Amino acid sequence: MLEITNNLYSPAAPGIEKIRARWQQTDSMAGVGIDPDISRIPQEIWDEVGGAENICDGIVLFNQRIIDATAEFAVDFKVNSNFFQGEIGRKALSSTFKYLKETQPDVIRVCDGKFADVGHTADVIAEEYFGELEADAVLLNPYMGFDAIKPFVDYKDRVTILCIKTSNPSAQEIQNLELANGTPLWRHILRLSMTDWNYNGNIVPVLSATHMDDLEGIRDEVGDVPILLAGVGSQGGDINEAIPRCLDSKGFGLMISSSRGILYPEKPQNEPYFDASRRAIIDLRSAINSAKAS
User: Fold this and answer.
1) For tag attachment on the chain, is the N or C end more exposed, with fewer CB atoms within 10 Å?
2) What is the distance between the alpha carbons of residues 276 and 167, in angstroms, rounded to a whole number?
């Protein structure tokens, strides 16, 4: 078993406390992934902004409508920066984070970029996303080592989320490699992230619901640290099995996001588009809470 350092039991970093407060406020562990696909934005948005040539305005308005419809039930909005490329994309990204801060200050603003770089480059990325965008949390790839994440961890009031055990099919080709002592690589990274790297108590792991055995006894290893749980839903992770393994001592402990199911919901023809998005996150929250109670 991993020896937990005092970092996990000292007063939590402000970003961690914000997550815990949001769980209580919403009675929810559901989140919304903002991955805007221009080809799937409904026509009503383009009509409102004066046509599909107004790409930035369309993306921003679509994101705003999703936020307005779902924020009441959302712990976090996980904005995937990889969907915001070029000058237009960066402008839309900035506008989306600004809208979140101004209209939903209690929600957790996550920038999902899975960044990994070192030295001055990492400093610049940290300043852009924690400084300019004022994100509460950033997703990083920890497999380049500590110097690639240190500039982010140094922001004591923010959260660094590390993609330790991910749900993509080929992740196990790297993450499950065994070290000389028989420990899988991902568990070694988890140990480092919860101890040596976690000097500010502000690191959150990404773990996968697609490999249920890996979640057995996971709270013995991470204490009450929040977990971003990947792989639920279309990727095959069963929340009814995963959630009971991952709950913290307060009965929360997880951030579980849906992107496409909320952004592009299935709906009857006569149902307003963003009503369907609202219904989708309510359904996700209900499913999570039912699994929690089981």
Assistant:
1) N
2) 27
In a domain, 63, yes or no: yes
Residues tagged active-site: 114
199 residue type, one letter: Y
Helix (H) or strand (E) holding 121: helix 119-126
Strand ranges in the chain using DSSP code E only, listed in sequence order: 30-34, 76-80, 108-115, 137-140, 159-163, 203-208, 227-230, 254-258
Note the pLDDT tens digit of each residue in 161-215: 999 999 888 998 999 999 999 999 999 999 999 999 999 999 999 999 988 899 9
Say how many domains are in the chain.
1
Asked whether the beta carbons of 201 and 7 are under 8 A apart, the reply is yes
Q: Is 223 left (phi over 0), alpha (psi -120 to 50) or beta?
A: left
Task: Give residues with Cβ within 8 angstroms of 285, minimum separation 6.
Answer: 26, 27, 28, 29, 30, 73
* 2 pLDDT higher than 80: no
In this structure, what are the phi and psi dihedrals at residue 256, rounded to the nearest 5 degrees? -125, 110
138 CB burial (10 A radius; 0-12, 13-18, 19+): buried
Q: What CATH number is given to the structural domain containing 271?
A: 3.20.20.70
Can you state the angle between helices 55-70 and 86-103, rounded to 10 degrees?
Answer: 30
Cα gap 100→239, rounded to integer Å:
28
